């Protein structure tokens, strides 16, 4: 039985795949080099997947495709058995960094009114639980609070309904250590008690040692390692270091990226030719 039937065999049992993404290739413009190539991501209900990779590896693009925010030419991405763009399923929540740049969330509006405007009053029990976890004051005014506090409001807003699949893209970067730890504990309980599936892209590994059940390494727009179980069979997580694993992969990514760019005549870092510098200062003469 193959994943095309959306069934995965685990310990002799059959489980329906919550996320089934196979051989996904995607380009910003048709005919140009793809930013994603043959990406595979299969997760069962209750999985917590850590999405690792260097900046520009394609993590955000993949998450936005899974969230149904980008049209792909092939129907190779399904969530809960439905095409993510043509027939997006309910129960999917995507939380990304672009939310904080929306002028609406920086306007003069009280947090309690803001949450009610997206249905908070219908989910009072979960909303109140998240208000405690995220340490949110309902009397805050959105235009007066910090980026970290605004991020807490976003998380409360996005998580207060019961979701089946959660897609997180670097949304904990603004949180302090305590709030982030309490949030991670909440997410683990959601996956264990309700069977919710989580894909979490982050570069911050503090407190994540026991969070993932699977790891997906994105490398230059692909997933060469496939799905890596965490901890690996026969190796308890306390014997392994998630940070060291990620660091090793990222160093490997940098070498491969450098080789790829050099083959196309591109080089990062300082240049020995000073022409650009001279041209710059001739164009912008600061003496006058």
Automatic annotation (TrEMBL):
SUPFAM superfamilies: P-loop containing nucleoside triphosphate hydrolases. Keywords: ATP-binding, Nucleotide-binding. It comes from the Eukaryota. InterPro entries: AAA+_ATPase (IPR003593), ABC_transporter-like_ATP-bd (IPR003439), P-loop_NTPase (IPR027417). GO terms for molecular function: ATP binding; ATP hydrolysis activity. Residues 19-245 form the ABC transporter domain. The keyword Ribosomal protein does not apply. This is ABC transporter domain-containing protein. It comes from Kwoniella newhampshirensis.
């Amino acid at each position: 039985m193959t994943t095309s039937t959306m069934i995965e065999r685990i310990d002799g049992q059959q489980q329906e795949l919550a996320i089934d993404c196979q051989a996904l290739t995607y380009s910003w413009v048709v005919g140009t080099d793809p930013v994603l190539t043959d990406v595979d991501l299969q997760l069962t209900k209750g999985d917590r997947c850590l999405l690792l990779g260097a900046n520009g590896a394609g993590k955000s693009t993949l998450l936005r495709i899974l969230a149904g925010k980008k049209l792909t030419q092939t129907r190779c991405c399904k969530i809960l058995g439905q095409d993510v763009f043509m027939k997006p399923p309910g129960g999917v929540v995507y939380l990304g960094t672009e939310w904080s740049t929306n002028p609406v969330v920086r306007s003069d509006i009280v947090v309690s009114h803001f949450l009610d405007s997206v249905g908070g009053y219908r989910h009072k029990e979960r909303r109140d639980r998240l208000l405690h976890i995220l340490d949110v004051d309902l009397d805050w005014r959105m235009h007066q609070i910090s980026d970290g506090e605004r991020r807490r409001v976003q998380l409360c807003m996005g998580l207060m309904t019961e979701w089946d699949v959660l897609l997180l893209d670097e949304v904990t970067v603004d949180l302090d250590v305590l709030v982030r730890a309490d949030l991670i504990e909440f997410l683990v309980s959601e996956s264990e008690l309700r069977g919710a599936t989580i894909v979490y892209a982050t570069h911050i590994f503090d407190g994540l040692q026991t969070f993932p059940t699977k790891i997906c390494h994105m490398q230059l727009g692909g997933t060469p390692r496939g799905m890596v179980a965490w901890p690996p069979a026969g190796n308890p997580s306390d014997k392994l270091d998630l940070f060291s694993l990620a660091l090793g992969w990222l160093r490997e990514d940098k070498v491969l990226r450098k080789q790829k760019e050099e083959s196309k005549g591109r080089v990062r870092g300082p240049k020995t030719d000073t022409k650009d510098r001279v041209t710059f200062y001739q164009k912008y003469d600061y003496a006058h």
